[in-house]
Amino acid sequence: MSRKVIIDTDPGIDDAMAILFAFETEQLDVLGLTTTFGNVSVDLATHNALILAELAGADVPVAKGVSAPLEITPRPHADFVHGRDGFGNINWPAPKGKALDVSAAQFIIDTVKAHPGEVTLIALGPLGNLATALEMAPEIANLVDEVILMGGTAIEYGNVSPVAEANIINDPHAADKVFTANWQVTMIGLDVTHQVLLEIDLLERIKASRPKYGDFLCQAAKYYIKFYKDRLDVDGCFFHDASTIAYAMEPDIFGIELGAIRVACEGLAIGQTIFAPEGMTFSEPHWDCVPITQVCMEVDSKRMLNLFEETLS
Q1: Which H/E stretch holds residue 186?
Q2: What is the pTM assigned to this prediction?
Q3: Which 8-state DSSP code applies to residue 284?
Q4: DSSP type of residue 154
């Protein structure tokens, strides 16, 4: 039976890879896309989510979500990573569809309540929609099957500051609410995504077998890959958001450690996901009674990239 998922997203080139991956596998039943600010504005994220649904031929609802962090001043959008259009400045044709009138948070609440215990939330961006849904209806924490999020880092360096990953630092207060809520969270952060490098040759092979997807992905990825080449001198891009889809399909690709996560919400370490391993005690009380998060620390890179290529080809 397919696993029911809602994908919360800020597309974003790596989001596009993840969403097309999810639409293409029979292992997942995508019930809808909810959008947030992050890589781009929430309006552009909604526009891009509609593009991706139409590109995939998927008749799924798209619900627009939060436009700014819960408490902090918004950070600039990462157009130097994803381009002004979020897709590497490829000027893809506008979508024909429109978003729902209902908010992303309300869509999450309604869908989870309609399928109690069955819906997994896959979060690819800042976590404001999930935090807002929790504030509006705290009871959904007991009704969600799992939250799988791309964000954070336990021991790896950050990509915005030495300790902070982009999705978390963009809305740290929302992230702390999500990590401390009474639901199962699985964190797929830079500890594993920095272990997986997607090269353009793989996307070219997808393009050869599936021109519709492959042409879009190859065009968009060139901008993304150039960013990584200029910044880190690597020949490819890290496999961030699509790792969540691989986990939802085949979680044994990953090795996990258990512990409580709190998020630093101010100061020099703002956005840091601070990991307290299960079984250890500390004199500081901030991790006491915090639910245990599954933190992905190991990954079979070859197996995951093969799964991505086989699914999209």
Answers
A1: strand 185-188
A2: 0.97
A3: S
A4: S
